[in-house]
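Task card 7
Instruction: Convert sequence to structure tokens.
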Amino acid sequence: MKPSIAVDGVLIKGDKILLIRRKNEPFKGKWALPGGFVEYGETVEEAVLREFEEEVGLKARIKKLLGVYSKPDRDPRGHVISIVFLLDAEGEAKAGDDAADARFFPLDNLPPLAFDHEEIIRDAIHAMKRNY
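Output:
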């Protein structure tokens, strides 16, 4: 079985980050970065923008590639490699698609997170401090 490819989008506005509450397993009810699986025939850039719009209702633009997260045990469904982008978007987020809720949280007071998203957010904060 081959690894699956996913994407996640990080939107930080000031000292807050946009998260979604997962509607489905795994981690149903936990908070996570907006994202999902890359569909056959699309680029990872197209995938992150599509998933972001589907889950939070916002059209985003990619600022930078944050990194690739590939630990084989990061997702209980199997080996999922996530390519993570820093995004920019304007407007009010609203939950859609696989999201039960979407809201901004203070970076210094995050809820319990799904997958390895705590590590990803920590990396995003460091990258933004370095003006990445």
